[in-house]
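Structure ticket #2291
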Amino acid sequence: MVTSNIGCHFARMGHRVVVLDADMGLGNIHLLLNVQPQHNVLDLLQGQTDMEGIIMDTPFGLQLISGGSGLMELADLSRHQVETLANLFIELEQIVDLLLIDTAAGISPQTMMFLHAANEIIIVVTPEITAIMDAYATIKSTVQFNRSALIGLVVNQVKSKREGEAVFAHLNQICDRYLKKKLINYGLVNKDTSVNKAIAQRQPVRILFPESRFSRCISRVANRMMLVGEKYGDRLTLSTGSFFSRLQQQVWI
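Resolution: structure written out below.
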């Protein structure tokens, strides 16, 4: 939900945005964007389509690459398939302004593969203690193999600004103390009844309810992303290389 709405925000600003639904085999972003993918990552790997064929237009400006839904073959990609996928996707970085990769939650090998290769990682966390513990575990696993990445938080479904700030402060403190890693605060997203209404209508909140609390929060998060990108983007790209080039180099763990 957060990823698709951030993508809509940037697309409405005139950027070419592609969202890669990297919850392989269990992708569902297409449902939120009211589209039915004709092709997915598996079709690309099997040579049934090319990069142009896998990128789907949506009614909301951004484009989508589907990770597939209900496909066991995508739930456990081999190293060779990952390398093939990275090779095919390298050209994608040359033609888009912003690539948003929405991974599955947790620290599965596939999720960590993407996190170990990314230059900028945004963890979406809710105020529940279990979610905070999971976020810390994800950050800890990422830092072990990708210390140079910018890692930050969006605190989602908060009741108040104070609650969101407290969650960020807590996670940032323990990451700084135990991992020697400071987090970037990308902001918070308030609980909002407009979210469920938008899901029911299969449209982004940012489009259906542009003046809602959720949409205003998404705009602030997106603006913060732009500021962080302007400050660190070139340095990270030069020092660590492109995302898909790094993905090719990942050691399967």
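Closing remark: The chain has twelve helices and seven strands.
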